[in-house]
Amino acid sequence: MLKEERHHYILDKIKLSRKVLSADLSIELKVSEDTIRRDLNELSSKKLIKKVHGGALPIDNLASSYLERSNFNLEEKNIIAKKALSLIKDGQVIIMSGSTTNLQLAKIIPSDINATIYTYSLPIALELTKHPSIEIIFIGGKLYKPAQVTIGLDVVSFISQLRTDLCFMGTEGINVSSGMTEPNWEVSHIKKCMISASDKVIVLCTQNKINKIKRYAVAPIHKIDTIVTNIDPSDSIFNEFKEKGVKTL
Question: Which UniProt keywords apply (predicted)?
């Protein structure tokens, strides 16, 4: 397993379990404890985790953690954002989830594009305020600090009344058999509503999210129109997705 893959595994496990032990990670990832200690030191230096004796814990300052994550895998996210940009046209109504890849997309929308964008992501809404021709509609609710998005019944109720042309959706995992999945139940429910409200669903995800399965189901694979990643769309990893009618970009 590559170092970057180990790092993603460690971060995912900390999100779910709220802690990791070096000895357990060594067994699960089939590497030495010295390798795990180096991994934890590197993630700690990036302020993505809090290293403690024998393992690691989540960062207490969750808002800062989001900002750190927005700079993680930045090169890959920029590749994805540039590909996804080709799908945006003048006059569209768009809804965007709160992924850090969507944040990169929001940063590069050309100034001559006129569109309406709904989002429940605070960082994305703030980023779009810099755009001269985008009408921004922020969907308010209770703030879920780890992802800097609003959640709750108010958000679900608002989205259920929408009709949008495009849904740009981040994900923690997508798999042919399990579809799109998320580790947080409330976020998964909001994303279900986003999909129901949209004519086309575009999933933006880095390579490490492909074939990952998280705890809560969002949508079966046939509900997804296009997957946009940082790798070549002809890669064999997409063969089963294409057989199900999912486009790749």
Answer: DNA-binding, Transcription, Transcription regulation
- Which residues in the chain belong to E strands, given as ranges? 20-21, 49-52, 55-58, 93-96, 115-119, 134-138, 142-144, 149-151, 164-170, 173-175, 179-182, 198-204, 216-219, 226-228, 247-248
Q: Residue 181 in 3-state DSSP?
A: strand
Q: What is the domain extent for residue 27?
A: 3-60
User: Which residues does the chain have with pLDDT short of 50?
Assistant: 61-64
Domain count, the chain: 2
**Identity (one letter) of the amino acid at 212?**
K
Q: pLDDT tens-digit profile of 159-175?
A: 999 999 999 999 999 99
pLDDT of 62: 46
Look at the block and give the residue holding tokens 């705890």. Answer: 215
Altogether, the residues listed in the chain come to a count of 249
Residue 227's SS3 state is: strand
Distance, in Å, from the CA atom of 22 to the CA atom of 138, rounded to the nearest integer, reads: 41
What are the tens digits of pLDDT across the range 125-141?
Answer: 999 999 999 999 999 99
Instruction: Identify the residue whose tokens are 């930045």.
Output: 74
d(CA 34, CA 50): 17
Q: Do both 56 and 82 map to the same domain?
A: no
